[in-house]
Amino acid sequence: MQHTISVLTEDHPGVLSRLAGLVARRGYNVSSLSVGKTDCKGFSRFTLVVEGDDEAVGQIVKQLEKLVETVEVKKLSNSPFVERWMTLVKVKAPLEIRPLVLQTAEVFRSRVVDVGEEALVFESTGDRGKVQAFLEAVRPFGVLEVASSGAVAMGRGGFAESHPDHGHKVPEYITTHGRK
Q1: CA separation (Å) from 59 to 29, 65, 90?
Q2: CA-wise closest residue to 171 among 162, 163, 180
Q3: What percentage of the chain has pLDDT greater than the value 70?
Q4: Full DSSP string of 37-75
């Protein structure tokens, strides 16, 4: 079973290596890893997708919580969450079939980000299923190249979880250290 884990960390050199090494030492392959800055200066959020049973992934979460730079770990797959993938796909599109390629992309709300004489580059964004379906739909035309961001995810902010600051809860660690 696939599990999506969100890890908020302090920005320090080597955090990525320690995080990936920890998962690898447990014998699990990371099927997706994305990282980016947050709205709080000095912090980054990692999104990991790993395959494994609940017990093993629970152990990974406990180990991630022990990393010095870790501020917060959430196993997102335990509750409702939003996940998006962004993929760039270069597709053969000579002029005689280009309208058909464009029509296919439109069905998936994929947009053209580059036009060439013989190929188009599309941006496809959505959940994993939508992105995979788009790839399958354009495969008959000839997929020349694919690059993907991997998963970016966060827990849903339902009405019951709303806060006065519009659902954005700053982890206690950040506020107690004067970083907001």
Answers
A1: 15, 10, 39
A2: 180
A3: 88
A4: E-SSTTEEEEEEEEE--HHHHHHHHHHHHHSTTEEEEEE
